[in-house]
Amino acid sequence: EAQVTQNPRYLITVTGKKLTVTCSQNMNHEYMSWYRQDPGLGLRQIYYSMNVEVTDKGDVPEGYKVSRKEKRNFPLILESPSPNQTSLYFCASREFKEVSTDTQYFGPGTRLTVL
Amino acid sequence: ILNVEQSPQSLHVQEGDSTNFTCSFPSSNFYALHWYRWETAKSPEALFVMTLNGDEKKKGRISATLNTKEGYSYLYIKGSQPEDSATYLCALSDSWGKLQFGAGTQVVVTP
């Protein structure tokens, strides 16, 4: 089954404790993104990657890191989480052919709480 | 950054009634408009992708129109059913395919 998986689905942590949210897709997609969803705001892009070893900042990259060592995986790293990073996080992937019309596939989301 | 506004923020519909809601954008400086359906505790799923030639899309009881001159897209749900309850997201894509999302319209269909 074609899918994007994320782990963990729920995480409660404390300020300053480094964490990684994993993301994996099995559709051989070139393009992957991370978004955060906050109440009253649209999904906002944190980072994206157009291919292996190619990553770039989205609209809200501060406090986050990513890596793309393999095509299928795109982990999101919070080196020193703070309470303002409490949010719902989505990983997404798509092909990179018809760039403006490609369908984007989302993972199930990770609900992160930073105390 | 492309500006995307969705209205209303939420709406309640009686089962069997039809409804529609809006995605508006001040500028047509984008390449495609996407509609996604997001059910609680699930992943957003793509409904439609609309290009700038003003197509109309339909999937079952749900359809969408795009008017780039007036700066809006409508999503219509005909004969709403409880399973239509979800948040509907609109997004604009730029030339690189980066998506700019609106805040969504939450639809609640009551039996």
Structure in words:
Chain A is mostly beta strands and 115 residues long. In chain A, 0% of the residues lie in helices and 47% in strands. Chain A has no helices and 11 strands. Chain B has 111 residues and is mainly beta. Chain B contains no helices and 11 strands. Helix content of chain B is 0%, strand content 55%. Chain B is globular, with a radius of gyration of 13 Å. The mean pLDDT of chain B is 92. In chain B, the strands form 2 sheets. In chain B, strands 2, 4, 5, 9, 10 and 11 form a 6-stranded mixed beta sheet that branches. A 5-stranded antiparallel beta sheet of chain B has the order 1-3-8-7-6, with no helix packed on it. Chains A and B meet through strand 5 and strand 10 of A and strand 5, strand 9 and strand 10 of B.
Q: The biggest beta sheet of chain A, please?
A: 7 strands, mixed
Strand-residue proportion of chain A: over 45%
**Spatial separation of the terminal alpha carbons of chain B:** 40 Å
Compute the number of strand runs of chain A.
Answer: 11
What is the number of helical segments of chain A per DSSP (H or I, 4+ residues)? Answer: 0
What assembly state would you assign to the polypeptide chains in this entry?
Answer: heterodimer
Counting DSSP H or I runs of 4 or more residues, the number of helices of chain B is 0
Compute the average pLDDT of chain B. Answer: 92
Radius of gyration of chain A: 13 Å
Percent of residues in β-strands of chain B: over 45%
Broad shape of chain B: globular
| Helix percent band of chain B | under 10%
Q: Would you tell me the overall average pLDDT of chain A?
A: 94
Most residues in contact: chain pair: A-B, 26 and 28 residues
Give the helices and strands of chain B as they follow along the chain: EEEEEEEEEEE
| Unreliable spans of chain A | none
